[in-house]
Design goal:
Helix content: 10-25%
CATH architecture: Roll
Order of helices and strands: EHHEEEEH
Largest sheet: 5 strands, antiparallel
CATH superfamily: Hotdog Thioesterase
Distance between the termini: 22 Å
Radius of gyration: 16 Å
Structural class: alpha+beta
CATH class: Alpha Beta
Number of domains: 1
Number of helices: 3
CATH topology: Thiol Ester Dehydrase, Chain A
Length: 141
C-alpha cells in the first residue's frame, strides 16, 4: 500500500490483554505509554516513514523527551481501545504529539508527548530531514 501523506491523524485499535493489567484487572498505568508508542509508530508507517531506513540512511532516530499524561478512567481486561495520535507542533528536531486512549468514544487517558530526533551515533538532537519535515507538515495540516 502506498503511503498516505494526507493522513492528519491516526487511530490504532488495541485489545487489552491479561499481560497489560495489574492484579485488579485494570490496565497498568505505564502500559498506556506503550500503547501510545505503537500509535505513533503505526501513524508514521501509514505516512510512509520507515524508521529503520531513516536510522540507516539519515542516521536519525526518535526518542521521547517529555511526557505529560492524565489518567481519566480505567481500561480493563479485554477492552478494545482506540489510540488517537495527532501532531500539535513541529520543531527543528522535535515532534509534539497529542495522544488519547478511548473506549467506545469515552476518553480514558490523554497525553502530550515530545519526541526528539537524534543522531544515531551521538544521541544529540539532530534536525528532521527535509523529506520527513515535508511529510509531517502535510500530515499536521
Amino acid at each position: 500500500m502506498p503511503p498516505d501523506t494526507t493522513v492528519q491523524n491516526s487511530e490504532l485499535d488495541i485489545r487489552v490483554y491479561y499481560e497489560d493489567t495489574d492484579a485488579g484487572g485494570v490496565v497498568f498505568y505505564a502500559n498506556y505509554l506503550k500503547f501510545f508508542e505503537r500509535g505513533r509508530t503505526e501513524w508514521l508507517r501509514r505516512l510512509g516513514v520507515n524508521q529503520i531506513e531513516l536510522a540507516e540512511t539519515a542516521q536519525r532516530i526518535f526518542v521521547v523527551k517529555n511526557v505529560e499524561i492524565q489518567y481519566r478512567k480505567p481500561a480493563r481486561l479485554d477492552d478494545l481501545l482506540t489510540i488517537r495520535s495527532d501532531i500539535t507542533r513541529l520543531g527543528r528536531a522535535s515532534i509534539h504529539f497529542r495522544q488519547a486512549a478511548v473506549r467506545a468514544g469515552e476518553l480514558l487517558c490523554e497525553s502530550d508527548i515530545q519526541i526528539c530526533c537524534v543522531d544515531t551515533d551521538s544521541f544529540r538532537p539532530a534536525p528532521l530531514t527535509d523529506e520527513l519535515r515535508t511529510i509531517l507538515e502535510k500530515a499536521k495540516k
